[in-house]
Task: structure prediction
Amino acid sequence: MSALNADELRRDAFRERLALFGLTLPALVLVTITMILPIAWLFSLSLLADDGSISLENYRRLVEQPSYGRIFATTFEISAAATAICVLLGYPLAYLLSQLSPRVANLLMIGVLLPFWTSILVRTYAWLVLLQRHGLVNTWGIELGLWDEPLPLVYNPGGTLLGMVHIMLPFLILPLYGSMRAIDRNYLKAAANLGAGPIRAFWQVFFPLSLPGLLAGSTIVFILCLGFYITPAMLGGGKVIMVANRVANDVELFFNWGAASALGVVLLVATMIVLAVASRLTPLGRIFGGHGP
Amino acid sequence: MVRAASLPIYAHQIAKSYGRVRALDQVDLAVRSGEFLTLLGPSGSGKTTLLMVLAGFIRPDSGSLRFGETEMIRVAPHKRDVGMVFQNYALFPHMNVASNVGFPLRLRRVSKADIAARVEQALETVQLAGYGARGIEQLSGGQRQRVALARAIVFEPRILLMDEPLSALDKQLREHMQIELRRLHDKLGMTTVYVTHDQREALTMSDRVAVISQGRVLQLDAPRRLYEHPANRFVAEFIGESAFLPVERTGDSFFHDGHRLKIRDCPVVDGNCLLMLRPERLQLLGATAPDHLNILRGTVEQVVYQGDSFQLQARLADGSAVALRGVSTQDAMATLPRPGAPVMFGLAPEDTVLLADERRK
Result:
């Protein structure tokens, strides 16, 4: 004979698990349709040669043609530069916000979030209006006599970087600000009490404690930059070709889905490697809102 | 560790307001060199504010603060050279135990070899020798408390401040740490200012206790004096349990409910006053009323058994509620009167304390 009510209790537990699984089912279906299937399709496309046979032809071309190597190098360089500039601009701003009273900080946060809620396309066009040859900046600069000839402010890597940093900054500031807010003020009081002036207290206590947030923010920015399309396409003027732009060209101009898919797969793998390395260094899950181990 | 030199603290007319709330109302406080002084008060009384002024984290509106001969009121916190144990310890989570304890020494540019030696010595003092390589996350609450203490004393400050350091610990550990903190103070000898809202903790540990309420020091005395001679009703209520009986004064005689009181000494209070009754000072009398005692008659309302003791609650003829506490021996428990039964209490003249009645002047 089994223990008192053991079978019934086991059945209840099983039913509960079944119900929980039923609740997650819609999400599971959604993820399968919108993510897993397209990626599988992309992957299968990349393995088809021009004549329809299965081969590694597309990947071989990626390795052999130096232009592809240049595109990947450009992508990583621009992304790294944009991330670095975001850190230099975003860290002081997030620090300032974290030191203000929550009410004032929330008010100022609107200033960070308003552009964040505006369409990327609109913001990129706005930069175009400002920076082009006969744009606002050049017109005013010449009228004020600051320079004589219109400066090449856009359609180059510099202009692209400017637009990308502007769009990416909130992605750095939000997680960084969150992790800075979570730093107990008592740590800084303790540091001061033990003899650390403001500068040493910052570098020895506050900065190390803000590093996980900084790393999380820069990882998001870097990964988003790797796949950036609109801004380099519009502000780069054809001189800044990142992976996403080449993918678009391959599909739109050359109808070469195999080559585009192979590029996409390589970019995806590179992104996952970056993410894996970053999550090694810091519990990203905790900062992105999940519950770390 | 060797006995450190200690410094007296003189706080003079310290005032701090937040809007219309006076957190500190012209506070004067003198802490003797090497003394263990506790700031005791309910939450919001200003005791922590006063400690933060001593540490330099709160800038008062006015006042003077001297450590020994040196005026400190405008000195930045990191230049005050006082040790402090925070309520939640504030141990740096990105450093291990040894780095936490060595932090103040590194700031003072002590050589690496000396740091290692002094850190180990400090850890030994708090009975955590060999814990240097542990992470903060790996420590229990009591161990964190000790690390915080080691970090606060490793640079041999002459003044040590503690902000409710035991409030996060469970009761048994807290009582153990009270004894240990006191032992450590006696060994190191630094002037210590300790903040707590726990009156028993204050009585257990301190040389003197400052009772604080509404930003003012109501009484500053040794624990026994504080308990036996509270300056006013607030102190009497906040420290220990007490009941109060209204007392009328006629010349040099005092009467409660028409009976003349036999008192210890004539109080300095004018007019009507209160008789303070501590539950453990009342005696439960049998049928006879001894002449040398004050006699109070009433009816039993409730008997509460509390393990080591019992509490007998009764109402006197004039309607006042009183309580008596006794040791719960088998004998005493067997002979206690039942609720509703008449009861007679005795109070020795040396146990009478008369207080000014601020509400009936």
User: Anything to note?
Assistant: The mean pLDDT of chain B is 91. The CA atoms of residues 96 and 247 of chain B lie 62 Å apart. The two ends of chain B are 56 Å apart (CA to CA).
